Amino acid sequence: MATRAAERADPDSDVGLLAEHKGRYRFAAHTTAPQRLLDIACGSGLGFPYFPAVPLVVGADLEVDALRLADDARASAPNLVALARTDGTALPFRSGAFDVITSFETVEHIPDDESFLTELARVLSSDGVLLMSTPNAIVTGPSFGVPRNPFHIREYKPAQFRDLLLGSFADVTLLGQHVIPSFGPCPLWDQGPGLPRKARLSGFLWKLQRHGGWPPLVSLASLLRGRRALLPEEDEFTFLASGVESCHVLLAVCGKPYPRGRPG
C-alpha cells in the first residue's frame, strides 16, 4: 500500500495543528473506555499519554521514522504500549482484537480507502468503536477533485465520508470539530464573510508571523483579540453533530462493524 503519509503531527508541529490533533485524542479518551486500543497511523505517539489506564495500546504506522519517535513516547507510558510497522490494508492482528480504534487524519492518505476500512472493521470487536477523522472537502476546497494538500490523495465531503464508512460499519455518527463558543472567533478555524474584521486581521497577522518569524506580529494580533490567545488549546475544541458542513475536520464515531464486508 503506497501512502502519502509523511505529513504528521508531532511535538515540533505548528502549535495550531498540534492542539487540534490533541483535541481529537482528548475526545477519544473522554468518550471511550478501551481495554485494547489500536492507534492506526500513530505517528510520533502523540496519543499515548491520553490512555494511561488502558491495559494494552498498540501504535501502528507504516513509516519507520514515525515509529522511532513513537518508541520514545512509549518509554514514559505507564501501561503496555506495543508498536507495529504495518500496512493499514493488511493488518497483522486477529479479527476482533481491539475494542477501540483511533485513526486521525489517515484515510485521506491511503489509495485503497475501502480496503483500509474493511480491515479496521475486521480487527474491531463486534461491540467496539472506531473514531476516525479527516478534513472536510467543503472547507478545504479540492480543485477538480485534487486536494490542495500535496500529501492527500483525496478528501471527502461529509456525505461522501459517511457513505464510505457505511460500507464497513452499520452505525455511523458524523461530528464536526469546532472551537468552543467561549473562545470567540478563531481566524484559522472560522471562515466566511461573517467573521468579524478584527478576527480576519488577527488571522492575517498570525499567518505573516508564522511564515516570517516576526514575534511582534503575534503581540499585535493578540491585542486585537483583547490580549487573548490567538489559537485554541486542546481543551477548547468541541465535537458536534450540528454544523458539520462548515467545520474544518470531520470526526466519525463508528460501531457495529461488518467483519467480512458489508452483507448483500
Question: How would you describe what is shown here?
Answer:
With about 260 residues, this protein is α/β, with parallel strands linked by helices. It folds into 2 domains: about 190 residues, 3-Layer(aba) Sandwich (Rossmann fold), CATH 3.40.50.150; about 50 residues, no CATH class. It has 7 helices and 8 strands. An 8-stranded mixed beta sheet has the order 3-2-1-4-5-8-6-7. Helix 6 runs antiparallel to helix 7. It is globular. The relative contact order is 0.16.
Q: Order of SSEs, N→C?
A: HEEHEEHEHHEHHEE
Classify the beta-strand content into a percent band. 15-25%
Count of separate structural domains: 2
CATH topology of the largest domain: Rossmann fold
Sheet having the most strands = 8 strands, mixed
Find the count of extended strands (DSSP E, 2+ residues). Answer: 8
Task: Indicate the CATH class of the largest domain.
Answer: Alpha Beta
- Write down the overall mean pLDDT: 83
Strand order across the largest sheet: 3-2-1-4-5-8-6-7
Radius of gyration equals 19 Å
End-to-end separation: 27 Å
General shape: globular
Structural class: alpha/beta
Low-confidence stretches: 1-5, 191-195
Q: What would you say the CATH architecture of the largest domain is?
A: 3-Layer(aba) Sandwich
Name the helicity range.
25-40%
CATH superfamily placement of the largest domain: Vaccinia Virus protein VP39
Q: Count of helices?
A: 7
